[in-house]
Design goal:
Pfam families: SH3_3
Protein name: SH3 domain-containing protein
Organism: Candidatus Alectryocaccomicrobium excrementavium
Mean pLDDT: 80
Radius of gyration: 33 Å
Largest sheet: 6 strands, antiparallel
Distance between the termini: 62 Å
Structural class: mainly beta
Number of domains: 5
Keywords: Signal
InterPro entries: Cell_Wall_Dynamics_Protein, SH3-like_bac-type
Length: 473
């Protein structure tokens, strides 16, 4: 059964390479003989819920050895797995109303957190820490080496009160086994892999093991391995580990360290090698990055850009420069005339420098007006030159009542005959330097990866309009 409190002492080297099948019991219908708790893990201090007497369940496996007394069950209506004490389960529907058996001197389940049973156990991890009380924040009494026998005099939830020679104190139960543990095995991560606090991906994770790095495995159960990382017990997916260092290195990412160039209009940069990971940024066509590693299957690249690392699909990158526009401006040519350029990495800030005149054309209406660039950093602040220019912008972009809005508009910005894909909204803000243009302030023009002044972040709605302007070119 997975995730048991006590280690079974099984040999882990073989289990790392094969999946552990469930116990030799075919699925059987069972019934709960009392209102009782069922648990997320086979221990009474894990997440639990109370279910009514007579509840029908599927019995997946009876626990043996270290798991004796537990039953792995499944909800027949939704397939959710849970664990329950064996004495609360009956296979015969006629016996479901019989009260559960109580062991001699045993308290009801709600009081089972503390047990006074005395027995021998064995240290199943390297350097098991022993604390003055049942808390890792209490003083450390000593550490005990792997395989040493200790006497357990009391258990409290996840903690055991133990005696070892002249030492007395508390140790985590998960670091011990009732039977002599098998020899630990050194395994290697086949990819960057998380170390979890519990044998569940929904449990908190406290560390990451880089691809190719080694870790000591003390036991396995199903697809989970119990490991020790810097003296802290944790759990890793068996499918992400290999006992062969060569296999791990071959299946891990390959070092590249060479330039790469964005070969699509807009490339998403992910926080990890997954399209479901957070998107950190978008890079425009032709942007150069430094590729550090490529996954073994050639799907993902880890790269560095402006001092930050991220992940992108290899299919979105090229080994050689793709396009260099006039004046050194790197961008995408749209139908031979529209460029989509990065505000920070291209030459657009020098081409569209403060004091530069430009023509803005609304993509949807085709209406154009003249502007002048003002000082700004994260994007281009501009003003319409004349009252006629302001009215042209109003006709193109204002709402039905003639009011300015924060609605983003796809536009082309034409400078010295070259059109650039951009986005604007027309609500005036800040200061203006032209008194007679009928526009009280300035407006913002955004290019690829430009940022707002308020949030200092890329505005995704502006980026969508930029792409629209490029595609319309």
């Amino acid at each position: 059964m997975p995730s048991a409190k006590w280690l079974t002492g099984v040999t882990v080297s073989a289990l790392l390479l094969t999946s552990m099948a469930p116990g030799a019991l075919a699925e059987t219908t069972g019934y709960l003989t009392s209102k009782t708790k069922i648990y997320q893990q086979p221990r009474t201090n894990s997440v639990s819920m109370t279910v009514p007497k007579g509840t029908e369940v599927i019995i997946v496996e009876y626990g043996e050895g270290s798991y004796d007394g537990w039953v792995w069950i499944e909800n027949p209506s939704n397939g959710v797995n849970a664990y329950v004490k064996e004495r609360y389960v009956a296979e015969d529907e006629d016996n479901k109303d019989e009260p559960p058996d109580q062991e001699d001197g045993q308290e009801p389940e709600e009081d089972e957190e503390v047990s006074k049973e005395t027995f021998s156990a064995y240290v199943a991890v390297d350097s098991l820490p022993v604390y003055a009380s049942a808390s890792t924040s209490s003083g450390k009494v000593t550490t005990i080496d792997f395989g040493r026998e200790v006497t357990v005099v009391e258990t409290r939830g996840d903690w055991a009160k133990i005696q070892y020679g002249s030492y007395k104190g508390f140790a985590r139960i998960e670091g011990m086994s009732k039977s002599t543990p098998g020899d630990p095995v050194t395994a290697y991560a086949t990819q960057d892999a998380y170390i979890y606090k519990e044998a569940s991906t929904s449990a908190g994770r406290y560390a990451t093991l880089s691809a190719g790095k080694s870790i000591t495995v003390y036991a396995t159960n199903g697809d989970w391995c119990r490991v020790s990382n810097n003296g802290v017990i944790g759990y890793m997916r068996k499918s992400q580990l290999s006992t062969s260092q060569q296999e791990a290195e071959e299946s891990g990412p390959q070092d590249v360290n060479q330039p790469g160039y964005v070969s699509v209009e807009m490339m998403k940069v992910y926080a990890s090698a997954s399209t479901s990971a957070d998107v950190l940024a978008t890079l425009s066509y032709g942007t150069q990055v430094q590729v550090l590693q490529v996954s073994a299957d050639g799907t993902w690249a880890r790269f560095e850009y402006n001092g930050h690392t991220g992940f992108a699909l290899c299919s979105n990158l090229s080994n050689s420069p793709i396009f260099s526009g006039g004046g050194g401006s790197t961008g995408v040519p749209g139908s031979g005339s529209v460029l989509m350029v990065d505000w920070f990495t291209s030459d657009i800030q020098s081409i569209f420098s403060p004091g530069t005149y430009a023509v803005i054309t609304d993509v949807d209406s085709g209406i154009s007006w003249n502007v002048i660039r003002r000082n700004s950093t994260n994007h281009a602040d501009v003003e319409p030159l004349t009252l006629a220019d302001t009215e042209a912008m109003r006709q193109a972009c204002a709402d039905s009542n003639g009011n300015w809005t924060y609605v983003r508009h796809a536009v082309w910005v034409t400078i010295d005959g070259q059109r650039y894909a951009a986005s604007i909204y027309t609500e005036p803000h800040g200061d203006g330097q032209i008194d007679d243009n009928g526009y009280s302030g300035h407006l913002c023009v955004h290019f690829v990866n430009s940022r707002t002044h308020g949030s200092d972040k890329v505005d995704p709605d502006h980026q969508k309009m930029i792409l629209k302007a490029y595609n319309a070119g």
